[in-house]
User: Which sequence fits this backbone?
């Protein structure tokens, strides 16, 4: 089971560092440990407890610890959420999440392959940039763009265009279906799938394909026996990154799904924000967590299997670290599932062999198949890439165009105007829009303050814990490893409600026993954002640390530098790209977050996502388009600049 | 990479600097109010938690101007949302807008402050029919703000004219319902011939089944935004609040939309201003409420959002626009009024209603 733990501490290369870091290395892990314990694990345990309590009048919770009561409440709460209705919604959520993951994989794998096989470096970078950029615009805004596109009446842009082109006679019914939800989610999560696969394919050594051919393998076997297994860690990481947010989704289902597309996230949200029924909401989120855990264990088992294949090419990169983290989850249940999975794989191998004997193609047919593959594969890859880029960019372009619309409509063109921009920039000269413009600008400020603070803190804390995990041994390292990655595997909605409950209990205690009135606000927002950013930053930073050449540090020490100097002169500059990447990821996550912000926001501290969500439901004006266009421009500049700078530094080196 | 990091933050700093809102010109387009602000509140802040599109666009800027204070206005998803968030601990609201039926639940849970009427002299402007209602017999905690009906907003071209709930159930096209559980279950109970405020669990269960069966054409249950779906053509019928439908009728300047209170009966509600427990600035909250009760201010609000005013003085002084008095929607005639029912507080059986709504939201429109 060693595969489940980052194996860097078994290697001799950090021997020297460990001698001194051993003493205080554990301390470096303390902030992250405390943070995640207090703001992730403890809240989760409280929600678990509440799911065994009795629902009081007016949605309060009655705490009763007697065994009899626990048994009765377990029966009431958990059996209720497994009744027909809840089961229906669970099944639908699973279905939508799997469908989304499937389509992301079908579109994303060839796309990642397409990108990483571009020969010129700038073409490669640009193709990747085209995938990432839409991901840098706000999640709610992206989803909202689909609401404009998929509208059922002929105002809906897709229907309008198809009608105009004469391709359909009746408007298609797209809005408020599970199809709409799936489209919205594939759109939202495609980059999560493409990036890890890209990372895996990029590291792939194509000489291995040649070797396969030399050994008599054809294209078909070369792909399935060599390429696919070696890129599988990327596929697994991508699938996890898509599946987990997909199953707990709230916004996409609410905005595009209607009654037919309602998912489990909406039920939990209603329990906490609508009817205020905590006990039932807690039980529902526990069941959701269990469903996700089962899915993760299945993934992790597959991951374990791929780790057995010798894959130097894919070692150490972030996808690998991630899949290892989930391996840890599997480790808890491994004694039982391990033998089952072994049986399963033995059986499937045997079946494969039998199938081959029975239905195996003749050599001539195999040649023919190869010929077809050679001819069509590049065409298909181009077609897929083209489709993906159109799919990714059409909503953005629609948003851009309608930000210049001279009317209140975000779907019907009434002439060119820049009034929405001047309104935003002047802070609301137009009296009618005072309230919304003020609200929007205030929320941009909140998002930036929270985003910057959360990024700084989570990066520092994550760098500390990553160093300590890589360099030292201390008691409780293994459990910390789990704690550090577990948040990635918990749906956001569960984290959101657990933080809500946690802060509520803390505030209650402060009011009753300490006589202090505490309220949600910047502090609760930042505390929570840091908690969910730490694991992601740590994944990126640790991947960088694992890839670093240890000889530089040894050399520095041989030359007489002390540990402090070695760190600042050698280690830190070497790990900086990882740190910056982690920080950028944290910033994006924080800006994009809806659920956790919604549950931990206070008065007048609604983040941009929260405000845009409530606006997108009501006063739909091109002001939203204008603000998203400005965000796209800022993002483009940032990403473009980073590419230019990277290119320059690469040129120097 | 240093440079990028520096650039990122400096760029965002630029954006952050741009964000403080510029000074806003205050234009009192409607009648000028004679209300004067008591001294001593300059520089203070209050926070109001109300509904979307449920206050005049000048109401708050004018108050800020008159008193030299800052008002924050945030929008709720519904009464249950306000209740839930208050129960979690008042996030800092000074004034909330809540509907009649939820008042008693909030009072029972100690979530509201009693009103100090010395600070609200304008209370005398409220009409007698709106004072001392059953949900707050002495007006200890609440003061009426607006009243309206919940009925059927519809696209005339798609459905013709609506007079009965049966037409809504049988319509072959998309329909939206509001996230308003007591109202919707009340409609179901009424259609089965029961009291819309029943305390009988079996009747509630029956109404639940009835609604799930009749709601097969429901595509969305929306928190306070059904009129947007109706205006955008995504639904043909939106069960919604009178003023919200009136707002889209006025905005489109067309005859596309109608509003009906079906013959079997519908709901009339009174929304109230209240001060929640632990309000940071209850004194200024009282001043704000007094300001809202000024005849001119109250009339301006109602003239903009299209709901009925409980402000008798505003009606007496002829400040309410003719078009509202006679449009048949804002102030229904007496015959219609006779078939409207209110939702009463039913705290004893709250759970049964919540469970019923839970089932309805899951099974409807499948």
Assistant:
């Amino acid at each position: 089971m060693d595969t489940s733990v980052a194996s860097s501490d078994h290697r001799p290369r950090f021997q020297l560092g460990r001698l001194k870091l051993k003493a205080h290395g554990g301390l470096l892990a303390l902030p992250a440990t405390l943070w995640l314990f207090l703001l992730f694990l403890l809240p989760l345990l409280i929600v678990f407890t509440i799911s065994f309590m009795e629902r009081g009048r007016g949605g309060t919770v009655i705490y009763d610890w007697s065994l009899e009561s626990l048994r009765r409440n377990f029966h009431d709460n958990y059996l209720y959420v497994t009744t027909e209705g809840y089961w229906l919604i669970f099944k639908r959520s699973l279905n939508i999440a799997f469908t989304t993951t499937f389509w992301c994989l079908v579109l994303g794998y060839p796309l990642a392959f397409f990108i990483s096989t571009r020969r010129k470096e700038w073409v490669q970078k640009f193709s990747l940039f085209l995938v990432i950029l839409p991901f840098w615009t706000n999640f709610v805004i992206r989803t909202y763009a689909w609401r404009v596109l998929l509208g059922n009446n002929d105002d809906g842009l897709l229907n309008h265009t198809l009608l105009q082109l004469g391709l359909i006679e009746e408007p298609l019914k797209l809005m408020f279906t599970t199809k709409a939800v799936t489209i919205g989610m594939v759109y939202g999560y495609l980059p999560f799938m493409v990036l890890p696969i890209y990372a895996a394919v990029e590291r792939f050594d194509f000489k291995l394909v040649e070797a396969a051919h030399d050994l008599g393998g054809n294209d078909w076997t070369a792909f399935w026996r060599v390429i696919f297994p070696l890129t599988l860690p990327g596929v697994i990481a991508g699938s996890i990154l898509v599946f987990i947010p997909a199953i707990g989704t709230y916004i996409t289902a609410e905005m595009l799904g209607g009654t037919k597309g309602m998912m489990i996230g909406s039920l939990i949200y209603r329990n906490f924000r609508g009817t205020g029924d905590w006990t039932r909401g807690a039980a529902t989120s526990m069941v959701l967590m269990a469903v996700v855990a089962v899915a993760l264990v299945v993934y992790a088992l597959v991951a374990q299997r791929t780790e057995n294949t010798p894959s130097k090419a894919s070692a150490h990169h972030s996808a690998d670290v991630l899949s290892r983290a989930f391996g840890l989850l599997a480790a808890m249940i491994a004694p039982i599932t391990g033998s089952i999975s072994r049986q399963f794989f033995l059986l499937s191998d045997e079946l494969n062999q039998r199938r081959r004997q029975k239905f195996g193609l003749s050599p001539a047919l195999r040649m023919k198949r190869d010929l077809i593959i050679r001819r069509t594969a590049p065409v298909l890859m181009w077609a897929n890439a083209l489709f993906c880029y159109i799919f990714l960019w059409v909503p953005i372009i629609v948003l851009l165009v309608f930000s210049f619309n001279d009317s209140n409509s975000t779907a019907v063109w009434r002439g060119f105007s820049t009034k929405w921009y001047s309104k935003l920039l002047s802070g609301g000269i137009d009296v009618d829009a005072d309230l919304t413009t003020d609200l929007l600008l205030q929320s941009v400020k909140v998002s930036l303050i929270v985003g910057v603070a959360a990024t700084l803190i989570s990066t520092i804390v994550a760098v500390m814990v990553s160093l300590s995990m890589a360099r030292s041994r201390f008691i409780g390292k293994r459990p910390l490893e789990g704690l550090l990655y577990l948040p990635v595997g918990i749906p956001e909605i569960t984290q959101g409600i657990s933080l809500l409950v946690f802060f509520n209990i803390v505030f209650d205690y402060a009011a009753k026993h300490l006589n202090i009135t505490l309220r949600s606000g910047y502090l609760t927002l930042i505390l929570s954002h840091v908690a969910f950013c730490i694991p992601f930053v740590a994944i990126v930073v640790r991947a960088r640390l694992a890839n670093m050449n240890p000889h530089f540090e040894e050399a520095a020490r041989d030359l007489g530098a002390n540990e402090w100097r070695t760190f600042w002169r050698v280690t830190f500059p070497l790990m900086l790209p990882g740190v910056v990447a982690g920080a950028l990821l944290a910033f994006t996550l924080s800006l994009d977050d809806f659920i956790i912000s919604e549950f931990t926001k206070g008065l007048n501290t609604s983040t941009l996502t929260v405000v845009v969500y409530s606006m997108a439901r009501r006063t739909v004006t091109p002001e939203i388009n204008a603000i998203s266009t400005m965000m796209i421009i800022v993002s483009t500049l940032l990403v473009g600049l980073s590419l230019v700078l990277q290119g320059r530094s690469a040129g120097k080196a | 990479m240093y440079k990028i990091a520096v650039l990122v933050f400096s760029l965002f700093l630029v954006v952050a600097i741009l964000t403080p809102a510029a000074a806003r010109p205050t234009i009192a387009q409607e009648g000028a109010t004679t209300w004067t602000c008591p001294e001593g509140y300059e520089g203070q802040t209050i926070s109001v938690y109300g509904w979307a599109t449920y206050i005049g666009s000048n109401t708050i800027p004018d108050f800020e101007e008159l008193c030299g204070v800052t008002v924050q206005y945030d929008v709720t998803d519904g009464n249950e949302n306000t209740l839930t968030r208050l129960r979690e601990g008042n996030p800092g609201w000074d004034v909330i807008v809540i509907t009649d039926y939820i008042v008693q639940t909030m009072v029972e849970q100690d979530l509201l402050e009693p009103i100090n009427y010395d600070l609200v002299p304008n209370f005398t402007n409220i009409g007698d029919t709106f004072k001392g209602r059953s949900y707050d017999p002495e007006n200890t905690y609440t003061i009426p703000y607006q009243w309206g009906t919940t009925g059927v907003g519809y696209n005339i071209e798609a459905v013709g004219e609506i007079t009965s709930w049966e037409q809504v159930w049988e319509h072959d096209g998309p329909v939206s319902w509001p996230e308003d559980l007591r109202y919707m279950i009340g409609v179901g109970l009424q259609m089965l011939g029961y009291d819309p405020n029943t305390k009988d669990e079996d009747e509630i269960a029956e109404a639940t089944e009835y609604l799930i069966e009749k709601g097969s054409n429901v595509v969305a249950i929306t928190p306070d935004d059904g009129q947007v779906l109706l205006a955008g053509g995504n639904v043909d019928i939106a069960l919604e609040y009178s003023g919200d439908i009136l707002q889209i009728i006025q905005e489109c300047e067309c005859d596309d939309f109608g509003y009906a209170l079906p013959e079997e009966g519908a709901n009339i509600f009174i929304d109230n201003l209240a001060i929640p427990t632990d309000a940071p600035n209850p004194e200024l909250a009282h001043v704000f409420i007094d300001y809202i009760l000024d005849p001119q201010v109250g009339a301006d609000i109602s003239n903009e959002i299209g709901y009925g005013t409980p402000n008798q003085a505003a009606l007496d002084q002829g400040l309410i626009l003719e078009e509202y008095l006679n449009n048949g929607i804002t102030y229904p005639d007496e015959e219609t009024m006779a078939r409207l029912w209110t939702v009463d507080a039913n705290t004893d059986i709250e759970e049964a209603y919540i469970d019923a709504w839970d089932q309805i939201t899951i099974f409807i429109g499948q």
Observations:
- Chain A touches chain B through 80 residues (CB under 8 Å).
- The longest strand of chain A covers residues 54-55.
